């Protein structure tokens, strides 16, 4: 039996993935900022089959919340796995108006999650387990409309690649997840979205990737084709596009 810590657990994708793990009979610890919501989620997860579920406080922008979670995981038995669904996406216009938001975007999407995983890595090396890191297709290429957010997700994806190399030497694994447009609170009201996926479908694809020990997945899968085309556009043309 694996103990899963799910960061950013109140997001719709994280909720759906937590339910997948609960129904598979895994212990699930859910972490985030809204403790009332997390406690209700933990109760739901136990009803769905998790032998144990617990709500923990986590804030990617507050490193002081990390150590108590790491300590709690040391108290569990067996493999330890982590799924990172944390993220924050202000509009590019908001960041342009207040460049100080760059620090918060980096902390929420990259440095906070990476710092937490770095602290957790020795325990995973010791016991085994899996890390799921949710990045974004926005990190594949800097786009005019959200390049600050995209750059933070790109940094996290690169970190996950290195962590995969590190943990793989101990028999553990890291799955990098690159979602396209998903129906979540983060994307609500964002213009120009198309082929929007449901969180439950994304969660199932992540669960399959964990089972099959995939390294990197795009979800839904057709985003691999879309992003391959976008990455092949010459820079002289790409820099003139406004999407």
Note the total helix count.
9
Strand order of the largest sheet: 3-2-1-4-5-6-7
CATH superfamily: NAD(P)-binding Rossmann-like Domain
Helix-strand string: EHEHEHEHHEHEHEHH
The CATH class name reads Alpha Beta
CATH domain fold name: Rossmann fold
Brief overview:
48% of the residues lie in helices and 15% in strands.
What does this structure look like?
The chain is α/β, with parallel strands linked by helices and 243 residues long. It has one domain (3-238): 3-Layer(aba) Sandwich (Rossmann fold), CATH 3.40.50.720. Helix content is 48%, strand content 15%. The chain contains 9 helices and 7 strands. The protein has helices at residues 12-23, 35-47, 66-74, 92-97, 101-127, 147-168, 199-212, 223-232, 235-238, and strands at 3-7, 27-32, 53-57, 80-84, 130-134, 173-179, 216-219. It has a 7-stranded parallel β-sheet with strand order 3-2-1-4-5-6-7, with helices on both faces. Helix 2 links the parallel strand 2 (27-32) and strand 3. Helix 1 (12-23) crosses helix 7 (199-212) and helix 5 (101-127) packs parallel to helix 6. The radius of gyration is 17 Å and the shape is globular. The chain starts with a strand and ends in a 5-residue tail after the last helix.
Keywords:
single chain, 243 residues, alpha/beta, Rossmann fold, 7-stranded parallel beta sheet, 9 helices
Topology overview:
Elements: E1 3-7, H1 12-23, E2 27-32, H2 35-47, E3 53-57, H3 66-74, E4 80-84, H4 92-97, H5 101-127, E5 130-134, H6 147-168, E6 173-179, H7 199-212, E7 216-219, H8 223-232, H9 235-238
Parallel strand pairs: 1-2, 1-4, 2-3, 4-5, 5-6, 6-7
Helix pairs in contact: 1-2, 1-7, 3-5, 5-6
């Amino acid at each position: 039996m694996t103990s899963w810590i799910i960061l950013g657990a109140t997001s719709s994708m994280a909720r759906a993935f937590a339910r997948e793990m609960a129904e598979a009979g895994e212990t699930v610890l859910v972490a985030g900022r809204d403790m009332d919501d997390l406690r209700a989620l933990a109760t739901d997860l136990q009803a769905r089959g998790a032998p144990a579920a617990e709500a923990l406080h986590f804030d990617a922008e507050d490193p002081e919340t990390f150590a108590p979670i790491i300590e709690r995981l040391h108290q569990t038995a067996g493999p330890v796995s982590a799924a990172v669904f944390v993220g924050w996406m202000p509009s590019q216009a908001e960041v342009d108006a207040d460049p100080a938001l760059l620090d918060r975007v980096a902390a929420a999407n990259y440095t906070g999650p990476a710092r937490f995983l770095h602290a957790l890595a020795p325990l995973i090396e010791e016991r085994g387990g899996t890390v799921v890191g949710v990045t974004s297709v926005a990190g594949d290429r800097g786009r005019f409309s959200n390049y600050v957010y995209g750059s933070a997700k790109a940094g996290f994806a690169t970190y996950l690649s290195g962590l995969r190399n590190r943990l793989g030497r101990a028999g553990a694994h890291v799955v990098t997840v690159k979602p396209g447009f998903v129906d979540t609170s983060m994307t609500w009201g964002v213009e120009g979205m198309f082929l929007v996926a449901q969180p439950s479908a994304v969660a199932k694809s992540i669960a399959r990737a964990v089972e099959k020990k995939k390294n990197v997945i795009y979800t839904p899968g057709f985003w691999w084709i879309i992003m391959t085309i976008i990455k092949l556009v010459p820079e002289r043309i790409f820099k003139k596009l406004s999407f």
